[in-house]
Write a structure and sequence with these properties.
The complex is a heterodimer of chains A (821) and B (130).
Chain A lengths: L5 E4 L2 E4 H4 L7 H9 L7 H6 L14 H10 L2 E3 L5 E2 L7 E2 L11 H35 L19 H4 L6 H21 L8 H30 L19 E3 L10 E5 L3 H14 L4 E4 L2 H9 L4 E2 L6 H6 L5 E4 L8 H8 L3 E3 L9 E2 L5 H10 L4 E3 L3 H18 L20 H5 L6 H4 L3 H8 L7 H5 L6 H8 L1 H5 L3 E3 L8 H12 L5 E6 L7 H14 L2 E6 L1 H5 L4 E2 L4 E2 H4 L9 E3 L6 H16 L7 H11 L2 E5 L5 H12 L4 E3 L8 E4 L9 E4 L5 E3 L6 E5 L3 H10 L8 H19 L21 H12 L2 E3 L2 E6 L5 E2 L1 H7 L8 E2 L7 H6 L1
Parallel strand pairs in A: 6-9, 7-8, 7-10, 8-9, 10-11, 11-13, 12-13, 15-16, 15-20, 16-19, 20-21, 21-25
Antiparallel strand pairs in A: 1-2, 3-22, 4-5, 6-14, 17-18, 22-25, 23-24, 23-29, 26-27, 27-28
Chain B lengths: L1 H8 L3 E5 L6 H11 L2 E4 L4 H6 L5 E3 L2 H9 L14 E5 L3 H14 L3 E5 L1 H15 L1
Parallel strand pairs in B: 1-2, 1-4, 2-3, 4-5
Helix pairs in contact in B: 2-6, 4-5
Classes of the chains: A alpha/beta (821), B alpha/beta (130).
Chain lengths: 821, 130
């Protein structure tokens, strides 16, 4: 069949050659994207702006947008080393000169940035591929994917790139293949003698981020529709405020008399099989998880016990909790093998990506494997068949549980005199904890427990071979018994049902904004810090989302006002004062879906193959931002790039400074702060907002203040701007005891100043900044160029007028206005 | 004491106090001795405001580091770029990253003072003045 050359909507005809750079092979898809009844382009929109789509885009295709961001927020690097050992031409010190290959220090940093982002994308791609392949084996390629009745847009992160919706497993595979091809291309750019421009490399790092979200959403779709993870997309509206079910969290919830299987990493498939097996056979085996497994399995089975973030696995093993450990790929502490061996706990690796030096026993007889593991002739094995993992894990755990010594922590009294106070443990501790004094005092040891990362580095240097980490755990046994919390394991996507209700509230300031607090957390104090931030934001009428290990760590936070733990304190509706856990790391894509949906609901911006317009709108209007707390893995690195690229600025916690790359704006350089008025086509100077794209902070108080500062947008509605001022000034006053110096930059009109501070702010504008004000009114505002202008003149020359729309792309200016220019 | 010499030689030193900083009185003494402004990052501004000290402002460390790397930056007061940054009270891992940026991409000199050095530095500078 001949492919179409044009597509017609109503009376408007579009030439397909004008829509994409190279339409070969995708003409029918383009015609469908534009003319689709449900998701296509409204005729009026086709008449108003140029329809330019980026379907199956490479980084080059999206450079148009990325360069706009990077020109405004150029990368700043903090290289851990200036030495380059990437090739055999040298070892080259790049601190002063270029390397033998021609690479300078900034370029090397950018290459590393790209590599980090690619690694993050590869984790998500590989996870999604594993799930899709397994689903295809079980159900066939034609298997339809159910997105749930509450979801209008089936797949957003993939659709903005590939141009089609994921309705079947075949679609999912096609989208993944695109992602895999892109990853190969991106990695090639990081290869010796490839891409040499810093900004182009960062464009590519952004692209890897977007690919990671594409894969993450496919993984989520498959988990929900093929493997039975709960999702709000099918829940009744009345259920949503309490959706999903609670699961137990914390080591205190474990019944030590019953067998325990611990799942870690991306071990969802063997986990599900194990749960099914246990249910079917009526076994009394406890299913536990750390990291992504703890969240995913919790969404599948209410009896799952979540034992903490991925970083907590050594603590769980050292306490002798599991009878069997099942590992999937990623986020596994490499000491697991050694620690499990010491504790007499057999390990089953279920992923070819994590072999740990074990033998592959997939083909062998189950009873033989079980007896080897129980007798201890095999400490660990690989089984790549999820069903077989389930049976082996259950049978082994039952037998081992009967005989294994579970109280394996040492007696403190045996060691208390052994320490000679050399202090080596303290020196090597990543958190510089006062270990020397603590190992001689049980009470102090117990205090250390609250700050310990459970990495066991202290033990590796102790000349007396003291089991310092075990002593810390022993001293805190009572505390651990009390670690009993309830958490929601993840609800999947925000639904259209909820979104329609809340979307306009963002514009009008009823809901101050949407903040996602995500990350790996798991370092000392992270639960307190993240919990505090959630409470403060929800209290300030924000809608707060979370995903990943942060969602797990936060469960222990106690809300003193509500007298409840955090998941019980707040409702889980996508609404004002809501706190939603979307799920594991792949559920970060649901957070992104929440951001994307705004543009569709508010502006009817078509989604498919239309990433740039989506990002342009989010960046210019949607009050959304991300706080990434705790240490940052490559997955989070890619996620930060993806969020930033779609127009959602990211605040990194102090541990995120190790990221070594930030994107900061320079508010003093007025040439960088501009955008087009989409109605008139005028290029206008605008407020320096959002001031940064990826920015590190030192404290949780700075994070809260910074995130509210990042929510200012040039296209704010009046009440929305007022609400943003209110939260920014409130946090700033509370923590820093003053009014921020940069607030005049965001003032457009007196009516937008929060009522409670209006007179104070006007006084400061008058006395410190030379504005003319009188009785609560701005008579003349002072432009950044020094001119004194009436409010009307000021609105005309600084910022986007309320009710107009902003864009950073000339092609999104109304055609009519462009013709008149 | 080399560090004191470096601080005294600086024409436009800028003191930075971070999230872990607690010795506000000493910092004020140092600021007065060097005639240096204090850029209080993290939450440290509260300590200076509580003492009614005015030659300190709330800043964000990443912004300062970025600005210092911009050749044409005119400093916080618009009168000139600092030629020396004196860091006090930062998370070691955070500080490492900031110092890496400064040493590789700016001409600005840096000094890091621990509490003991700070006490000593203030003492030396005061003594020399007297």
């Amino acid at each position: 069949m001949e492919e179409p050359k044009t597509v017609t909507v109503g009376k408007t005809t579009v030439d397909i050659d004008e829509v994409v750079r190279d339409p070969r092979g995708i003409r029918s898809l383009i015609a469908e994207i534009i003319s689709d009844e449900k998701f296509g382009w409204p005729e009026r929109k086709l008449q108003q702006i140029d329809c330019k789509l980026k379907i199956f885009p490479s980084a080059r295709d999206l450079k148009e947008w990325d360069r706009i961001l990077l020109e405004r927020y150029p990368p700043i690097y903090a290289p851990p080393s200036t030495e380059c050992t990437s090739c055999t031409l040298g070892t080259c010190d790049l601190s002063r000169e270029k390397g033998a290959c021609g690479m300078d220090l900034k370029t090397k940093c950018a290459v590393e940035s790209l590599l980090n982002s690619c690694k993050g994308a590869s984790v998500q791609l590989s996870h999604a591929r594993e799930l899709v392949n397994e689903a295809i084996k079980r159900f066939g390629k034609e298997k339809e994917i159910s997105h749930g009745r509450n979801v209008r847009y089936p797949s957003i992160n993939p659709s903005v790139l590939v141009g089609f919706n994921v309705y079947t497993l075949e679609d999912a595979e096609k989208a993944l293949s695109y992602g895999e091809t892109q990853l190969a291309e991106l990695l090639t750019s990081a290869e010796f003698g490839s891409e040499g421009d810093v900004l182009d490399l960062e464009c590519k790092a952004f692209h890897a981020g977007s690919i990671s979200f594409l894969a993450a959403e496919i993984a989520e779709i498959v988990k929900e529709s093929c493997f039975g993870l709960c999702s709000s997309s099918n829940a009744e509206l009345v259920e949503l405020p309490n959706f999903p079910h609670f699961i137990d969290q914390g080591v205190g919830t474990i019944d030590r008399t019953k067998p325990v299987i611990l799942f870690a990493g991306n071990s969802i498939l063997p986990g599900i099989e194990t749960i099914d097996y246990v249910r079917e056979k009526g076994e009394e085996v406890q299913i536990c998880g750390v990291g992504p497994a703890g969240l995913d399995l919790g969404r599948y089975y209410e009896g799952t016990k979540n034992l903490g973030s991925a970083l907590k696995i050594l603590k769980v093993i050292r306490c002798g909790i599991p009878d069997v450990i099942v590992l999937g790929d990623v986020c596994i502490n490499l000491n697991v093998r050694e620690e499990a061996e010491k504790a007499g706990i057999p390990v089953i690796s279920s992923s070819p990506k994590l072999c740990m030096g074990y033998e592959d026993r997939t083909e062998e007889d189950i009873s033989k494997i079980v007896s080897n593991l129980v007798e201890g002739t095999e400490k660990g094995i690989i089984i790549l068949d999820p069903k077989k993992v389930a049976e082996v894990a259950v049978l082994t755990s039952k037998k081992i549980s009967e005989t294994r010594k579970k109280d394996i922590l040492p007696k403190i009294s045996e060691y208390i005199e052994k320490c000679d106070g050399c202090g080596k443990c303290e020196e090597i501790c990543p958190n510089l904890l006062p270990l020397t004094a603590a190992v001689r005092d049980e009470k102090k040891l117990s205090e250390i427990y609250d700050s310990c990362l459970f990495c066991a580095r202290c033990e590796s240097v102790c000349p007396k071979e003291m089991p310092i980490m075990s002593l810390i755990l022993k001293s805190a046994e009572e505390k651990m018994r009390e670690e009993k919390y309830r958490m929601r394991p993840g609800r999947g996507t925000p639904t259209d049902l909820e979104f329609r209700d809340v979307a306009f509230a963002f514009g009008f300031g009823t809901v101050s904004g949407m903040v996602a607090i995500v990350g790996c957390a798991g370092y000392p104090g992270s639960a307190e810090e993240v919990g505090y931030m959630v409470n403060e934001l929800v209290d300030m009428n924000y809608l707060v989302l979370t995903a990943g290990c942060t969602a797990t760590e936060i469960a222990s936070y106690y809300n003193q006002t509500e007298k409840k733990h955090i998941y019980e304190a707040w409702h889980s509706l996508f609404q004002i004062r809501g706190f939603l856990n979307c799920g594991s790391c792949s559920a970060l894509s649901h957070v992104a879906r929440g951001f994307y949906k705004y543009t569709h609901v508010i502006a009817r911006t078509p989604i498919n193959g239309n990433f740039v317009e989506q990002a342009d709108y989010i960046f210019g209007k949607l009050p959304c931002a991300v706080i990434m707390w705790g240490p940052v893995t490559e997955q989070m690195y890619a996620a930060a790039a993806a969020f930033a690229r779609m127009g959602a600025p990211v605040v990194l916690g102090p541990h995120g400074s190790k990221y070594s790359r930030f994107f900061l704006g320079n508010r003093d350089d007025r040439s960088k702060w501009w955008c087009y008025d989409g109605f008139t086509g005028r290029k206008l100077e605008v407020e320096p907002c959002p001031p940064h794209l990826i920015v590190p902070v030192e404290t949780k108080e700075e994070a809260l203040t910074m995130v509210t500062r990042l929510l200012f947008r040039p296209n704010d509605f009046r009440d929305g701007r007022m609400s943003k001022f209110d939260s920014y000034l409130s946090f700033y006053e509370r923590y820093f005891k003053g009014i921020p110096d940069d607030f005049p930059l965001f003032v457009r009109a007196a009516a937008e100043l929060p009522w409670t501070r209006k007179h104070k702010l006007l006084r400061i504008l008058r006395e410190k900044h030379g504005w003319e004000t009188e009785k609560g009114v701005i008579i003349r505002a002072k432009h950044r160029d020094g001119r004194l202008l009436t409010e009307e003149e000021y609105a005309d020359s600084y910022g986007i007028r309320v009710g107009q729309y902003s864009t950073f792309l000339e092609r999104l200016i109304l055609k009519e206005a462009r013709e008149k220019r | 004491m080399d560090v004191v010499q470096i601080m005294k030689e600086a024409k436009r030193p800028l003191i930075l106090t971070g999230a872990l900083f607690k010795d506000f009185d000493l910092a004020i003494e140092l600021s007065e001795a060097l005639n240096a402004h204090i850029a209080a990052t993290g939450n440290s501004i509260a300590g200076f405001r509580d003492r009614g000290f005015e030659n300190a402002s709330k800043e964000w460390i990443s912004e300062i580091v970025k600005w210092v790397c911009i050749p044409e930056w005119k400093g916080l007061d618009g009168k000139g770029k600092p030629d020396l940054l004196i860091f006090m009270g930062y998370h070691p891992y955070f500080l490492k990253r900031m110092l890496s940026t400064l040493s590789n991409f700016s001409e600005c000199r840096t000094v890091v003072l621990e509490k003991e050095n700070l006490e000593e530095a203030v003492k030396y500078i005061k003594e020399e003045r007297e």
